[in-house]
Task: structure prediction
Amino acid sequence: MEDMSPLYITGATIKNLVKKLNLPALHPYSQDWELESADSSRVLEFINFYENQALNENEQFGLMALIISSYDDYLAIGNEPDLVWTKIRYNLLKEFLIHKNTILYWAVLDETEIDNCFAVTPLIREVLAYKYK
Result:
């Protein structure tokens, strides 16, 4: 079966999510929208929006990338995993095929030194381990 996981966040998806979530406008030369728009103070709001709004697959993919980036920022400033992570993990596993490429990006599987990875990498690797146990 061919892998149908989205590879990137489309411009239309970004535009829709910026409007729906009242995110800062994009700059003409913006790259890595999910990294630039990440907001650790809004992670719970983002995951609740993900769970409670009718989103198409591209919006689910883009919003989850934003959620993980925001949660990575949350962890990077010294916070510990919490109930929000439980919600994120649940949705990653529930819609694994949509989020597979995002999961692989944040898992940084080719890096053996965890200190060279993202703050969220150990949690993401646990999602992969659970999925493929």
